Every structure is written in C-alpha cells, then in structure tokens.
Amino acid sequence: DVVLTQTPVAQPVTLGDQASISCRSSQSLVHSNGNTYLEWYLQKPGQSPQLLIYKVSNRFSGVPDRFIGSGSGSDFTLKISRVEPEDLGVYYCFQATHDPYTFGAGTKLELK
Amino acid sequence: EVQLQESGPGLVKPSQSLSLTCSVTGYSITSNYWGWIRKFPGNKMEWMGYISYSGSTSYNPSLKSRISITRDTSKNQFFLQLNSVTTEDTATYYCARSYNLDYWGQGVMVTVSS
Question: In the predicted model, what is the mean pLDDT of residues B86-112?
Fold first, then answer.
C-alpha cells in the first residue's frame, strides 16, 4: 500500500500566520492517465472531513484562495496563508491513484 | 445540493455483522462513485471501499472478505456490511461521494462491545 507521511504532526500557529503541511508518498502518485490524485481535507472539531484541494492544486467549490496546494510526483505541500480561526482542525492528505486508496496520519493545526 | 446521511446501530457485538446505510439526496447514485471511510479513535483514517455508478465494487484488501458494499438504486441508497467484527472495528463510519470524496455524510459512531 502507498504510505503517505505527513509532517508536522502538529502545527501551532498564531492567527494571521502562514502554515505549511508536507505530504510525502512512498511512491509516485502520477496515475497512468497522467493525473495525480492527491487531495487535501480539513476536519474541524465535531464535523466531517471537508475537501479543500483535489488533484494536487485545484481548490474545491467555496474554498478560500488562502489555501494553496502544490507539488508533484511524491512530494506535496498545502500552504495556508493568513490562518483564520475557522482553519483550525486536523488536515489530511489522501491519494486515490493507487488501490487501496490511503490517507496520511493527519496534521493538527492549533493555536500557539 | 448533494447530501449524504449515514444510519445504523451504534453498538454491535463482537463476531456479529455491522450494517450501515447511506441515504443520498440531490444526486443519483447511478452516477459517480460512492465510498465508505472510517476514522478510528485518535486520528487514523481508513478508506474501506466504493461502489461505482455501474454497481462494480472495490475494497481495501485489509478488510479481506469481511466487507460488502451494495446499493438500492430505487431508494438512492448504498450499504456497508462488515462481518465478524472485533473491538478493532470501533470507529466513526462515513459515506462519501466520488473517488476524491467531495461530499461526506455526518458520520455514525459504531462501538463494538459485548
């Protein structure tokens, strides 16, 4: 199975700061069709996970432009500029290129 | 608007079967892919499997032959059955749409305990 390694495990931030989360894959996530199915989710306390970014860098409907996904191959990053209170929670990367699909272990974005 | 809602028992005894329903509104399950995901106590998330628009399925091999995902297109629902459960199957279970999980249900917490 593809292993997704997320770092850091926890990211203490001050509101208004930039935050950055890394997701590294044990193998390339480029699908045979040329797409890279690496997605990012945020799970806020008491809520279901919500899709933020799909196929590495595409913001899902309604996601603010302060969320920026980047990367290629097996190395990916989610940047959040100007962290706001509603951005706090646990972030997951997820790959849907290789069966079985797998999640990273999560990164908790929390206040300092 | 696409909405998904899980339902099913919150408590299952060891060795029995866990059965959950995902009711979908605002979109037909004869389009797209429909999956089950679970979150264990702590943060670990596991993709369990999906059923496609055509009714074909794909399962996580870690669940071996214990899992079955089926559907009722007339009710726009799909189902999860997990057999021979143990305490390690205690988790919050979510249903979601598409291979990239763009819409999720609110989740149902299932405890396996005697």
Answer: 96
Distance from CA of A36 to the nearest CA of B (A): 11
| Minimum-distance CB partner of A106 among B43, B61, B106 | B43
Burial letters B11-42, b for 16+ CB under 10 A, else e: ebeeeeebebbbbbeebebeebbbbbbbbeee
Spatial CB neighbours of A4, under 8 Å, sequence gap ≥ 6: A23, A24, A25, A26, A93, A94, A95, A102, A103, A104, A105
**pLDDT for B99 beyond 90:** no
Single-letter residue type at B58: S
Question: Does A60 contact B at CB distance below 8 Å?
Answer: yes
B67: closest CA among B57, B55, B82? B82
Query: What separation in angstroms does the CA of B80 have from each of A82, B47, B54, B83?
Result: 40, 13, 17, 10
SS percent in chain A: helix, strand, coil, step 5 = 5, 50, 45
* Cβ–Cβ contact A40 with B under 8 A: no
A&B contacts, CB < 8 Å: 52
Judge whether residue B64 has pLDDT over 90. Answer: no
Contact between residue B76 and residue B25 where contact means Cβ atoms under 8 Å apart: yes
